[in-house]
Specification:
The chain is α+β, with helices and mostly antiparallel strands. Helices cover 29% and strands 30% of the residues. The protein has a single domain, classed as Gcn5-related N-acetyltransferase (GNAT) (Aminopeptidase, 3-Layer(aba) Sandwich).
Length: 126
């Protein structure tokens, strides 16, 4: 299994956001997944650019994260990300979550700290 097969399955199962073709809609959350940076093994991981929902606390982000993790496990690849809070425009540009809260949230899905603001979810050993 590989990053390529991960993206093939992702693209066949989840629709493109019609306004932003690099984004996918997974469980009512908008997600952008990318090939990893050039210095990483291109066939061993994906980069999660962001995951966002209109209604924080609705469970849509968690549902989308479970899909991403299950798909990564199936294709035996790691998931990398850079933790940063983005404004929730539906709530007067306040941050949806603080970075520390985001790290805890990602930690629930097996992500571990990998540098100052980076996190990685290693390949599952299941």
């Amino acid at each position: 299994m590989s990053t390529t097969s991960f993206f093939e399955e992702l693209h066949s199962a989840y629709p493109i956001n019609p306004l932003m073709p690099y984004e996918r809609i997974i469980c009512e959350a908008v997600v952008e997944l990318q090939y990893p940076p050039k210095w990483k093994d291109q066939e061993a991981s994906v980069y999660l650019a962001f995951i966002k929902t209109l209604n924080q606390g609705s469970g849509a982000g968690s549902a989308a994260m479970r899909v991403i993790c299950e798909l990564a496990d199936k294709h035996r690849i790691a998931v990398d990300l850079f933790v940063f809070a983005i404004p929730n425009h539906a709530r007067n540009s306040k941050l949806a979550l603080k970075n520390s809260d985001l790290r805890k949230w990602y930690g629930r899905y097996g992500f571990i700290k990998d540098g100052v603001a980076n996190m990685c979810r290693p390949v599952s050993t299941c």
